Amino acid sequence: MLEVWRGGLLECVHQGHAVICDAKGIVAAWGNPEAVIFPRSSAKMIQALPLIETGAADARGLSDRHLALACASHRGARVHVDLAGRWLADLGLAETDLRCGAHEPGDRAERDRLVEAHEKPCQLHNNCSGKHSGFLTVTQHLKAGPEYVEIDHPLQRAIRAATEEVTGETVAGWGVDGCSAPNFAMSVTGLAKAMATYAVAREGRGAREDAMHRLTRAMAAHPHLVAGEGETCTELMRAMGGKVAIKGGAEAVYVGIVPEKGLGIALKVVDGGYRAAEAAIAALLARVGVLDPAHPAAVRRMAGIQRNWRGLETGALRIADGFAA
Amino acid sequence: MLEVWRGGLLECVHQGHAVICDAKGIVAAWGNPEAVIFPRSSAKMIQALPLIETGAADARGLSDRHLALACASHRGARVHVDLAGRWLADLGLAETDLRCGAHEPGDRAERDRLVEAHEKPCQLHNNCSGKHSGFLTVTQHLKAGPEYVEIDHPLQRAIRAATEEVTGETVAGWGVDGCSAPNFAMSVTGLAKAMATYAVAREGRGAREDAMHRLTRAMAAHPHLVAGEGETCTELMRAMGGKVAIKGGAEAVYVGIVPEKGLGIALKVVDGGYRAAEAAIAALLARVGVLDPAHPAAVRRMAGIQRNWRGLETGALRIADGFAA
């Protein structure tokens, strides 16, 4: 998928699988479209379906901002932490009700604030705190038990069912994600098909399509909530003017929902290298005609000049011949 | 080389090239031993040869601690920053004479100190500041110009010549490294051969062997200066009781010098994934019989149970079948 060049020599290569689907099936594919992968955080819009479909989101009056945060892998900036914190408070819950664990935020300002205040990061800083706030919203609505990340919890059973419905596949297995939630394995094609169902979803055609349409719109409208300043998700969604939703996942997964073309995209870099996943999603979005390949945010990821600590040019990224062609 | 498993499914795979050489040539190889790579920081013991061979190190009374730091990619902890700072002061030079650029240190305590003091990291925090202090020592000794990272500078010409001598290859090209120094390309075999020449070097057999022997001994004796607490170089060298020198490089290169076996090791992970380079060097050191594969520092890298932010087990690393066998 991606080559990394230095001094005129090829220094690194990333390989992967990618699929573009429309509502009928595969439109284009590279690598092995049947490869079974963990979608990781790129499944967050699937994991958020019960939030809307159970009626929990409406019962709690959640806004598109909440829904975007439910689908986010955010940087733990104040905007993310504050929104998740208020959300939990509105539910009458606390940070300690989360089950995602804590890690240092990616956002530099918030990280420095914590260091200066001698504060430890809390679970609200976890990049998945929005998803987990959504999980708690459903859990409360269903009057289910507090251990909402257990595989047999009603919420996770609902997510598993939704996963099988939107991918058209029986779940191939499951693993524990970084945030402790179950993550259901699927083929790259299954994930791309699922994204295509989001892309063609329209309002007023049933609860499932309503939910998909709403989540896609919420993500595309709030790029800074889905990731954060400087992040690929945020920058590329902005570059596409709020009409496309994209989402990355750990170990180099990326998905795209392209409503105007009725297309879903899914890709996985075999080695888990993020730079390749970010380059590949940009290349595929450019290929389907929704991302200007000359946009600085696209160029930086697909063909970025690499510079060192003194700003000297050291090399460049290059999309591998044949990929996204 | 390395597989990453989650929930009983293979999530990621890293491929690479590796060679073990003795003084006569290749003993074992995996992948493509002729692949041309940038050794990056794994070439630091080659880049340090002029420091000793010009007489600069002795003229300045450098200790083994200085030599270990000259071969280091350190974490920018106080011990590293202070040693480099005193070294420059002893030369009558300042941090501003360095040409490595500045970046935030990996060491958490020093990073937090900087944040709390509202100080920016300086060039002494750069993981290559020891190498550059060595470069300045040679430059001063040779009465050469201050721009010591330029490709035609007498120091870089000396490093290029030494590189060709120890690898037995004509340099295949060069690139600008992260620290702005030229980095000379070579085959994985050439790098392993070079490490084998260090492994068999003995004192009293000429300036080259004296220099190689001294650098190897300095690195093996000061694992915490070569990298830092928690780092693979440091932990594995400690696990081997100070008898083996190993060194990583950017984009997932690793080398080993095993004097007691007369062996040199070099490897490159094709995608630049560090976890695979760290696993692979541990596996090869175990294979040649100098690292106990049951040592916790080895297990963690070769077969480590992976845990998430809440400490839950999510999967495990596994050396790929056939590699290092």
UniProtKB/TrEMBL annotation, chains A, B:
It comes from the Bacteria. It holds the Pfam family Asparaginase_II. This is Asparaginase. It comes from Rhodobacter calidifons.
